[in-house]
Design goal:
mainly beta; 38 strands; disordered N terminus; globular; Rossmann fold; about 675 residues; 8-stranded mixed beta sheet
């Protein structure tokens, strides 16, 4: 990977990926003169270019430790979106440990996670291309699982070592019917094929072996539950050959979600449970579970992917934990049932961590700080940045800081959001003009947005847009009651909250009520389409791989989410009338404003027909719309050229709808029925 030196964004012209020259100011320099220019919102010239969204940094995650070595994953859009495993050794040397082109990414549940593991210098990882597991030494991968009969049909994730064995989740795809999920064991040298050690449930995760190797714990759950609805924590005897016996149900059930089972160095089983209404930390002592410290905060999160780790063990039986409170992420140390919050300069922490003595390694960031791999000394609270996600330095005067807002919504409820006002020190708007607003509706829907410095947000605010990122009812981080508020109400409560957020800002005079747009991906794309079909609040919308037909989603999606809508909408086909009532595709007569749809053609979660049928219906009605499809992209865009094109198309679309001239030199997108704008 190239070594890009830090540079002030406002002082450097940024050329586009297609080889365009940096935009020059009137004096011929790449730096704006020391004056403030009056220009309409949306037309402001920003140094955060479209190409910077992919060229300026990498995605960071999958943090773990192995003795004195630190490992993490880097998602690199410039390398086709692949994930590389990176190591910083005990001497401070940082280097890739996977060879060029190797993509450490699992496809279990389609969303993956938990794609690699390392212990005592032994590194294993699955490959995205064939989903086989490889042992990697000196940069050379050696396959240790057999080639399946169906290409990429045997998928693996969530690895743990047991002597010379690997234990993990396997998802086996067949020609017909649902994939079969089990826990399997296989030798590290690849000398034997994987052997099933426990089966019978629809889903498995989090196999964890006790320090002495005599016990194993894991999570399981069954349709129609999702892991945040209800899971079961099991524990069993574990033989040297990986055989499991005497399984015992420890905790959990259909209405209790268990998260991250973990053994302490002394062999005590810990886990997170939400039986109090909040995900709190418990342990198993003498056959009974006991809470370590009850808190109205979330020490767990929805397990959309494998490998999530929100707490870890320190010296002297102390526990480091990350938790969500009022939409912000905090860290603390648990010792003798007391909680000591650590005061470190971050508002958001990542989804994985590793410990070494009393030091913790994780990812962290905030409204003014990009996400970074960091080291935290829990005693001194000293922080060291190991690797930043951004390889540029943003001028603080350019950064729009998130403001946490609460607002009244329907049914007397209160919802949450983060508001980002437009900000660019080189521009002001004409007197009396208010900014256009973009409402961000996050995916999931069981997920959450967080306050962190993201170029994707600053791209908009630096051009004169206001943003509001909504944690609608059903979002996580606010307790189980708030999370469950979307049960049976998807397409209603989330829609109401996004509309209420927009109206709240308009009523308070922050934004122009005539120029409000809504955008989102996946479940957020569904909420976006609902907003356009069932309300007249918004003047435009952008749906990224959004759901248009709920019945099609219930009958044509992957196993993990195939029964998700049972709780969000109702059982299908029993509730078929509700599915039709809440599907934008069956209510296209409610569309009255322009919409752009962006879709990956390899998407297995929300397949392309979902977008294509909406496009056909909009065309038949004469509604202005644009459709941009991407070959080789699945559920979420990973390739640099596609990420850039999607943002360019969306920006061009808004400029056409809202009637301003962007400062950027944009390649246009075809808008069908543009004459009706």
């Amino acid at each position: 990977m190239r070594d890009a030196k830090s540079k002030k964004v406002r002082c450097e012209g940024q050329g586009a990926r297609q080889g365009k020259e940096p935009k020059r100011y009137p004096d011929g320099s790449a730096r704006k003169a020391a004056m403030t220019v009056t220009a309409p919102y949306g037309s402001w010239e920003s140094p955060i270019t479209i190409s910077m969204l992919t060229e300026a940094g990498v995605g960071l995650g999958g943090v773990t430790t192995d003795g004195g070595d630190l490992y993490w994953l880097e998602g690199r859009a410039l390398e086709g979106g692949r994930q590389a495993i990176v190591r910083r050794d005990a001497h401070g040397t940082v280097a890739d440990v996977t060879p060029e082109g190797f993509n450490s990414r699992s496809r279990v549940h389609e969303y993956g996670g938990g794609s690699y593991a390392v212990q005592d210098g032994v590194l294993i990882s699955c490959s995205f291309e064939d989903q086989r597991v490889y042992r990697i030494a000196d940069g050379e991968p050696m396959a240790i699982t057999p080639e399946p009969k169906i290409p990429a049909g045997d998928r693996y994730a969530d690895f743990v070592f047991h002597g010379d064995l690997v234990i993990c989740v396997r998802e086996r795809h067949k020609k017909d019917g649902e994939p079969v999920n089990t826990l399997v064991a296989f030798p590290l040298d690849g000398s034997d094929k994987p052997r099933t050690i426990t089966k019978g449930h629809d889903f498995y995760s989090s196999p964890r072996v006790s320090p002495d190797g005599s016990r194993i714990a894991w999570l399981s759950w069954d349709h129609p539950n999702m892991p945040w609805d209800g899971t079961e924590l099991w524990c069993a005897a574990l033989a040297e050959d990986g055989t499991v016996s005497e399984p015992e149900l420890i905790a959990g059930g259909v209405e209790e979600s268990i998260f991250q089972p973990e053994w302490s160095p002394g062999g005590v089983l810990h886990f997170v449970s939400d039986k109090t209404g909040w995900w709190n930390l418990f342990r198993l002592v003498d056959g009974h579970t006991e809470a370590l410290h009850l808190l109205d905060a979330e020490m767990g999160e929805p397990a959309w992917v494998f490998g999530l780790r929100r707490y870890g063990f320190l010296l002297e039986d102390r526990i480091f934990t990350m938790y969500y409170e009022d939409g912000f992420s905090r860290v603390a140390v648990l010792e003798d049932a007391s909680l000591r919050q650590l005061h470190v300069p971050f508002e958001h922490f990542g989804h994985s961590l590793g410990t070494c003595g009393d030091q913790v390694f994780t990812t962290a960031g905030g409204g003014s700080k990009p996400m970074a791999v960091v080291r935290i000394d829990v005693d001194t609270e000293a922080v060291k940045v190991v690797k930043e996600s951004l390889q540029i330095e943003l001028d603080p005067a350019l950064i729009s800081l998130p403001e946490a807002v609460e607002f009244e919504t329907t049914d007397g409820a209160v919802a949450h959001a983060f508001y980002y006002p437009p900000r660019n020190p080189d521009f002001i708007a004409p007197d009396g003009e208010k900014p256009p607003l973009i409402v961000f509706s996050h995916g999931g829907p069981t997920a959450a947005t967080s306050p962190e410095l993201d170029l994707n947000y600053q791209f908009w605010t630096s051009r004169g847009f206001a943003l509001v990122d909504v944690n609608y009812r059903g979002s996580t981080g606010y307790g189980r009651e708030y999370r469950n508020a979307l049960r049976g109400e998807w397409g209603i409560a989330d829609l109401d909250d996004c509309v209420s957020a927009a109206l709240h800002l308009a009523d308070d005079g922050h934004v122009d009520p005539e120029r409000m747009a809504i955008r989102g991906g996946s479940a957020g794309g569904y909420t976006t389409l609902c907003a356009l079909a069932f309300t007249d609040v918004f003047a435009a919308g952008a749906s990224y791989f959004g759901v248009g037909d709920l019945a099609a989603l219930a009958t044509d999606t992957h196993k993990f989410e195939s029964r998700y809508l049972d709780s969000m909408i109702g059982p299908y086909p029993e509730a078929a009338d509700v599915y039709e009532e809440r599907s934008p595709l069956h209510n296209v007569d409610g569309f009255s404003c322009p919409v752009i749809l962006l879709q990956g053609l390899d998407d297995r979660v929300v397949p392309p027909p979902q977008a294509e049928e909406i496009v056909a219906a909009l065309d038949a009605m004469g509604i202005p719309h644009a459709y941009v499809a991407f070959e080789g992209e699945g559920h979420g865009f990973r390739k640099a050229e596609n990420i850039e094109r999607a943002r360019e198309a969306e920006f061009f679309f808004y400029s056409s709808v809202f009637g301003f001239d962007p400062a950027d030199d944009l390649d246009p997108v075809e808008i069908t029925h543009a004459d009706a704008l």
